[in-house]
Amino acid sequence: MDEASDVMPSELPVERRQRHTRDRTASLNSLSHFKSASSKHIRPKSTLRNRGSNASMKSVGSDTDHSEIIAPIPRRHLLQTSQSLHWLRVDTSSGDEWLNRGVSPVSASSVGSVFPNNRMSNRLSFTALMEHERTTVGPSSTADARILEDDQGNIGAGRRFVRWMHRNNMKNWVVPSAIAASTLVKWCIGFGTYSGHNRPPIFGDYEAQRHWMELTVHLPVREWYTYDLQYWGLDYPPLTAYVSWLCGRIGSLIEPSWFALQASRGLETGGSKLFMRATVVIFDLLLYIPALYTFVCAWQGTRSSRKRHAALLTLLFHPALLLIDFGHFQYNSVMLGLTLLAINAFAAGHDLFGAIFFVLSLGFKQMALYYAPAVGSYLIGKCIYLGPVHGTRLFLRLALTTTLAFIIMFAPFLPPFSPLSTIAAPIIRIFPFGRGLFEDKVANFWCFTNVLVKWKHIFASREGILIKASTGLTALGFLPAVAALIFGGYKTRLQKDAQNHSVDVSPSMAPASPSSPTPILPLLPYALLTCSMSFFLFSFQVHEKTILIPLLPLTLLLSGAAPTDDVFLWGALGNNVGVFSMWPLLKKDGLGLQYLAMLILWNRLIGYNPFKLRYGHFAGLLSSVVHTVIIILHLIELAVTPPARYPDLFPVLNVLTCTPIFGLIWLWSIKRLVEVSWAISGLPGKREKEPSSTVSAISTTSSSAMFGHSPMRGEMGVRATSLGYASGRGRGQADARRRALVTSAGGDQEH
Amino acid sequence: MNTVKQSHSSPTDQLDDSQKPHAPKSTSAWTWLNFLGDVSKSEVDVLLLSMAFKFLLFPAYRSTDFEVHRNWLAITHSLPISQWYYDTTSEWTLDYPPFFAYFESLMSIPASFIDPKIVDLQNLQYDAWTVIAYQRLTVIISELVLGAALLRFIRVSVDPSRQRILSASLFLHPGFLMIDHIHFQYNGFMFGILLWSILMACEGRKLASGILFAVLLNFKHIYMYLAPAYFIYLLRSYCMSPAGAIIPTRFISLANSVLLVFLASLGPFVLMGQLPQLLSRLFPFTRGLNHAYWAPNAWALVTAADRVLLQLVKHLGVELVVNESGIASTSRGLVGDTVFAVIPNIKPIHTFIVTIIFQMVYLIKLWSAPTYKSFVAALTLCGYASYMFGWHVHEKAILLVLVPLTLLASENYAYYKTFVIASVAGVFSLFPLIFTPAETLLKIVYSFIWGGMILYPLHKQLYEFPSSLPWVLLESFENAYLYGFAFLQAFVTLFPLMTGGNPDTEFLPLMATSVYCAVGLIWSFIRLSTLYIIQQY
């Protein structure tokens, strides 16, 4: 909450102070805080309470957390409850008088005994008394009240865990332990086999990555993209090559035979496998996990720490990514982590850093291009938003930085380091248009329609048409995202005359504006989803693993949503179906068990039960149906071997199941784009009005997932200003719009 | 065999509960499950998440115990019962009591449907995916007995929130994870039976408690370590009136039911006249004082002292009668039989006498105060004394101490601290079981997370300030000891890297682990003994 309250130095000083004192009461059990005035008025009798009632005490302070407003349940120590009085021979009717007398500290602390030679230990042990109590009175109902309460909410195991940790005063340990646990899970997935394990002569993705380490270590840079292309020639951009080189160097230090040129092909020793697995985990720890953490801070900075922690948990155990990176073996988390860092930088207003991160992401894996239209149009939209002067300046800076970053990345392939012709090899390798419309069965439009229309046969000699068609369809697919971002930027652009109208516009707004977040930021995750999904569905040469790229923005959106939200339902459905769409691949890799374990683990963690019927939610009903179909398909696959005529029967059925879902998610993301952009910019010319009056009913559904926080109790200003991303410097008339957006977004969100 | 039945049916219905959380729990279909009470969502969380995690461990390292159990599946499936204890096709002969053999026989039926090669006696070292998945799965499923018992402990506890933490700590115990789910054994299942038996004692159903313990003894005879406590407790509190008069009906019913259990187990072998053969398999007295890796008990310290003395003797040139064969056995510390060089050798009878003396002290106390708490403490101490002074103790036997000790942990701070020291040292002493590099990271991180999640909240709830200066000092020593494990782990990890796997010093990390853990376990043993003797029940 600190970032949020810093944002509002003048508007709500009183409330802020109050909130701070209340925050402190969160640690009621440390003695010094007993003296704080606010704690007294919350619980006048709090000194009476004993260690036994710690659980309820800790929740007192959590009132900054809206969803969790749980009135402190006054739980007395057993000594003080009337049911315990009979063995103390105290008259129960004395009631309050007796309670006010309190319990002397000595007797309270001698619940146990001081080891070993204490006088108290010779008395009857207190637990023995309690036990006696239990048998005479029966199970106490108050003891489990808190746990039962947890059970009633429709929340996942992750949130329950976070609550438990917070209540047991381990708030600061949630993030480290979650990261440790997820790393442990990732490591354990790595016990399994990997892509191409024990399958000579060509092996699989694992061997590809290992081979790149081998060749980058031993060959000069300009031969990297030309060396023995038949055997896993390098076809990723230079950053992958550099990273491979680094890993190869370190690995060669440990054991040179792991990366011996030629001799190490197909090497599968335990040591080298361990090393390779360790590199993925280390890159994940260095890049992806910090990116997730900064995402949660940057985009959900104004939410309660419990919600942020729960969101982090959701993201840390993302099943599809874990299975592919740590099971199948790839380095997607590096690419996704860099993209995520770029998005975080945009949210924090550091557009240039964001651009550099995104270029790095592109430079690691060309698949980041799926995000490029959204990122590019966001930046253009921002330039438009800033107006002609600042916008142009920003645009030039961005163009310059991006070009420079690209040039530096490709520098070894450019003059003066090597002849200009060298650059052709990586470019050709990176964009493989010669490899056909699709390879394996992949759940996209082309493979889906291929069941009826045999594209490859019809256009056997005219591949060019297919390329054009797929490019055109893809462009059509991501057009809504581009349009929404640019149009949003245009609609919300800063106008000079606006400064005369707004009262609270500071003169410092204009110079500060290039680094302040834009109102179109809420569109960005949806735009990323639309773009990447459209690429996945319509573009050329898509792999089934590429579903990870649309799943990232979808999971980001999901992480902030409540379990009854539309966003949550679509996100969970998309993720599960996404994992299912990779089932043929995982099965081939021997990762069936890991597939099952991760699905159970993650769904339990986020509290998603697909078979719970949710009437009135299209996504909910759809998910029940789809999951039933998936389970049936799995069962049939277990029981029946496909007929010889259709060896690919199950992969095709898989494609037929998954593609419609991905298509629906794509359509849904477009719908959400429209809604959110309506909420942002749908009220032209009314900016001067009081925000609360301009709230439209339609926008209640908008942006609630990521950015909605119920602005209760007059904290609207605080929350609205920062709108999910921490930096709130750009106050002004944009602020009014944001407030409108957020006001509208509340309500349906928190539970 | 009630428990086995439960183990097979509880997962499905717990899953079901989680899927319809608001369904009334006491509808007729589920009434037979009432013994678990309302299973809360957080409990299902623990079950499901830990299950999912254990699935991931299927391909992990597994010891020869895996092949041992596979071989037993084959023996019990393909041979007639008369051959079970005679078969020597594999070197891993059947050396568990008959109930466990029956259990294996039961498990071999589905196994033969899944993959007939699993139960092929000649198919040694079979490690196809089917057998791995099947055997690992049986461990997870049979462990549900433990889960059910732990849930019951929450229901009957006076302080459910604390007991919930303790129950979770047992279900997720790194000991079980390492021994059962990586190394491969069925401890979760058998400790489940033990906990059911203790639970019955807690609920005052002492006859059931006795029967369950008899059943357990026929699953694995290592639980004989605990038998004296059971014997005294049941005799004093069940078969005798508080005044000390024997109640014949109770005595006879208990004796008869225990006899019946043994008859069901050993009867067929007695009829076939195979009892001597069976017993010779169960109690091989041909092993040495210490296991290959010294279990961190009193003898580990004695052995270490012998090693140190030998070096002293060598360097100082003191004239002493040195046992030559002892010098030979010193260099490794890994070799099976231990022969002392300086200290007089220890014979099985010595260890036996020491153990009995210690146990007698606790049993006299238990006789005078036959309450449930006293019983659990005496049970723990009986196991502890056997672990400390027993002949050829395995490091895995530490679970015999840690599991019942956990039930006492929330009693008060003194017990809690004892529990912490014993748990940390005990879990650490299991680390050498898992020595492959990939699993090493797993065991350390998992144990660390486990320790943090369990110990921190309990510490918060139970902490008491030390009352005087000696206790302050003692507490700081204890904490220093606990922090020392970080350095020990660093040493164990780094030492082989620095020496480059020199075989002469290979045993040093193991010896250091053993000695350091032994110090903590012995201290914890002294603490617990003192606590038990002075506490009035």
3D architecture notes:
The complex is a heterodimer of chains A (751) and B (537). In chain A, helix 16 runs antiparallel to helix 30 (592-606). Chain A is built from 35 helices and no strands. Helices cover 59% and strands 0% of the residues of chain A. The longest helix of chain A has 39 residues, at 372-410. Residues 1-67, 78-123, 137-144, 497-514 and 683-751 of chain A have low confidence and may be disordered. Chain A has 751 residues and is mainly alpha-helical. Chain B has 537 residues and is an all-alpha fold. In chain B, 68% of the residues lie in helices and 0% in strands. Chain B contains 22 helices and no strands. Chain B has helices at 2-19, 41-56, 64-78, 98-114, 129-142, 144-156, 160-171, 174-183, 187-202, 206-217, 227-238, 248-271, 275-282, 298-316, 324-330, 348-368, 372-389, 399-408, 413-430, 437-462, 469-499, 507-534. In chain B, helix 7 runs antiparallel to helix 20 (437-462), helix 18 runs antiparallel to helix 19 (413-430) and helix 21 packs antiparallel against helix 22 (507-534). Chain B is globular and about 60 Å long. Chain B starts with a helix and ends with a helix. At the A-B interface, helix 8, helix 9, helix 10, helix 11 and helix 30 of A face helix 2, helix 7, helix 19, helix 20 and helix 22 of B.
- Which stretches of chain B are low in confidence, meaning pLDDT under 50 for 5 or more residues running? 1-30, 330-336
SS class of chain B: mainly alpha
Compute the number of strand runs of chain A.
Answer: 0
Largest sheet report of chain B: none
Residue-averaged pLDDT of chain A, rounded? 73
Using only CA atoms, what is the Rg of chain A?
29 Å
Strand segment tally of chain B: 0
Distance between the termini of chain B: 33 Å
Identify low-pLDDT runs of chain A: 1-67, 78-123, 137-144, 497-514, 683-751
Main beta-sheet strand count, sense and barrel state of chain A: none
| Greatest chain-chain contact | A-B, 70 and 65 residues
GO molecular function, one term (chain A): dolichyl pyrophosphate Man9GlcNAc2 alpha-1,3-glucosyltransferase activity
Subcellular location (chain A): Endoplasmic reticulum membrane
EC number (chain A): 2.4.1.-
Protein name (chain A): Alpha-1,3-glucosyltransferase
